[in-house]
Fold this sequence. Notes:
The chain has 7 helices and 9 strands; from the N terminus they run H-E-H-E-E-E-H-E-E-H-E-H-E-H-E-H. The chain is α/β, with parallel strands linked by helices. The chain has one domain: Nucleoside phosphorylase domain (Rossmann fold, 3-Layer(aba) Sandwich). It has a 5-stranded mixed β-barrel. Strand 3 and strand 4 (79-85) form a beta hairpin. Helix 1 (5-22) crosses helix 3 and helix 3 (96-108) packs across helix 6. The protein binds hypoxanthine. Hypoxanthine is lined by residues 119-121, 195-196, 212-214, 237-238, 240, 248, 253.
Amino acid sequence: xxxxxxxxxxxxxxxxxxxxxxxxxxxxxxxxxxxxxxxxxxxxxxxxxxxxxxxxxxxxxxxxxxxxxxxxxxxxxxxxxxxxxxxxxxxxxxxxxxxxxxxxxxxxxxxxxxxxxxxxxxxxxxxxxxxxxxxxxxxxxxxxxxxxxxxxxxxxxxxxxxxxxxxxxxxxxxxxxxxxxxxxxxxxxxxxxxxxxxxxxxxxxxxxxxxxxxxxxxxxxxxxxxxxxxxxxxxxxxxxxxxxxxxxxxxxxxxxxxxxxxxxxxxxxxxxxxx
Length: 275
Ligand code: HPA
């Protein structure tokens, strides 16, 4: 998907295809479902349509188990919500433009609020598996940006996008209203797919990170660049490397998601009507 200027046109085309197939003229909110969050999202209601992302321009098939590509449309408290299931990651061999294409598509289809959900390792030992953390800020350690390459064409904003308020204070305040006990934290986004070494986790902790994962940061930058408000929620699936004695296991990440699915769903069901 190069040159980059073509990425915006491709997302606009995919948005038109999505609108035509879903029958939704304009979305209000998009929720990108990370590990564990998809099972919970059924609490939001019955989808009015499910569009396989394979039918939409520019989408690639996810290679991670439990990440089938689909955009589910729902109406929640009068809001048109797009649930994006099946995100793709840098570690699957895709470039940043490909990774953010689903987010650019749903924003092009109207979404002004983008909720990014993920599973993450807890660096702060107080963050126990199964808890949800509201991302206050991030460290983008992927070494790339979705805005790298050719300048975005008019009418898109310049690539030198300000990220001071990347994770919207307004949306974080709304989460506090519906779930006052949730902690906030800084998410470090790495390329993976290997988990980190204990030394890397210690370095991240000293750099101010509370959580570590392999998604979210590029999508947040792309959504912000398009003027959307961004909220990110992390399910702590495991203590990060060296934080607890046990070795890390991808099955543990998936199992924590399954156990937490109901409470994740309840959180989304309380939150989305307020967004
Ligand atoms: N590290 C990186 N990514 C992750 C982790 C982790 O410990 N857990 C879930 N995603």
